[in-house]
Model the fold of this input.
Amino acid sequence: MTIEAERIVERFEQGGHGAFVESFDAREERMTINMGPVHPATHGVLRLLLELEGETVVRCEPIIGYLHTGMEKECEDQNWRGATTIVTRMDYLAPFFNELVYSLAVEELLECDVPPRGQYIRMLLCELNRLSSHMVWFGTQGLDMGAMSAMFYGFREREMILDFFEMVTGLRMNHQFIHPGGVWEDLPDGWDDALERILDVLPGRIAEYEDLLSYNPVFLERTKGVGVISRDEVLALAASGPIARAAGVDWDVRRDMPYDAYGELEFDVPVEDAGDVYARYQVRMVEMRESLRLLRQIADRMPDGDHKNMDPKLSPPPRPELNRSMEAVIHHFKLMTQGYTVPAGEAYRVVESPRGELGCYVVSDGGTSPYRVHVRDPSFVNLQSLPVMVEEGMIADLIASIASIDPVLGGVDR
Amino acid sequence: MPEILRLAASEWADRASSLRSEGWVATDLCGLDRLGLVGDGARFEVVVQLLHMETRRRLTVHVAAEGDPPTVPSAVGVWPAVDFPEREAYDLVGIHFDGHPNLRRIMMPDEWEGHPLRKDYGVGKVPVEFRPQPFLQIDAPGQATTSVHAAREVDHLGQPVPGDDTPARRESNWSRSGAAEGEAQE
Done:
């Protein structure tokens, strides 16, 4: 309550929307309206219950669950390898991160190492995935602000990245490629040329994005000072990712608690202080550039060797082995039918997904399938900060705030 | 290895405040049903993930939820971030949070019965929600329709149970649907 009261006073002093509310005559006419779950600006099946005074949002309550399919329960019915097919479908714009965080948690229970090449392939795919996810955000943020062409630009480059994913994994999304122990297959021939093309083209394209929106007066008008959230509110609500970094929280899991080989790479973490929609826009734009910088380093340093832990009890043998060795056939059969067992215990691992801290809590009872899988999806937690951003603001600014949270409802509802 | 702290429900409220004043931030909370796990202790637990940004440490807190329904004090007053996660733990595992201002289902429909992530809530053992519609046959033009194979029994995959096609079941559409409603009420 006190936080909200402070915010109203703050806005009043700034002569912003708060001042407008105070002088508004039609205060009595409160209206409750329903936005979503089927609405183009709610990015999926998010439903918002809004209480309006004129065009001012007095109260906003997110209602979720329309896409709930019980994925955590389904994981308990799969073996450890098969559960990657479920988790990859949660946040469908960033599937590699879901697989990665689940694999890291299982690896912690297995106490198995990932060879350097496997770690680098993971980082390569994740940073490309961060770019493709931010491109969807760029498109939708622009589209919601009335800049139709941003969608075309964002999806044009995303297609290049998805083509690369298709070349490496065979699929454009829901890849099931990162597994406990490493990645499923080695990179195909010609991956470096394909990556080189992306790295050549993208810096210019991101500059094009900046030309489109960064200095566009209409875009600035609709994003600066809109959807403000303070540093204390971010910490209280555990919001993470670009939302937290745009409000001055200098925290990035890749840098502060490194996983895979992020400790060996150099990159900067953008931090802004304004906490508004435009600050989140700036943070994501810089993150895209930093991802390119990371990709360049990953491409230069890609080590040789195995792409996964070759323990026959964990990873299926290479295909040619099956023609030669009976032992390999037996291992393959055991892994594909029963699966491997994981020592009893629990593990919690966190990665930095495009939307923030993606956590995975895994409990094993020593059997061949997970006892409990819980995924802390950043969209789910970040959505709690939406009311703080939009209350006492205009309903048109609500659209800008939703787009700047960039929620993926597949991850919210799981 | 993760740092783990195990607490009883009665300790949790005080401990949460002191942890917060030490600078811990709650990032995640979930319910856990320990029905099939070895070891003694309460069947239900609330697992809270804490993060300390200055020291870059993570801490896992297990709070035992005793009683029926299993209950722990809510930490929303300490960390507003656990609002949605507590509602999720209530919805899916059935743990009650004392003092939560808005403890309603969040994922499942409001009228749903049971808590899906409990271990005794089996996958694939949910009764079929759709009662098969009677197959309508027009006997002759202008006459009322009668049903054939009205409301066949189906198994959990929706396949008809064989040997169900007895004359006693060939009743009129109306009486059959009335009986079906009676069954549903039971």
Notes: Residues 9-21 of chain B form the longest helix (13 residues). The helical segments of chain B are 9-21, 83-93, 173-185.
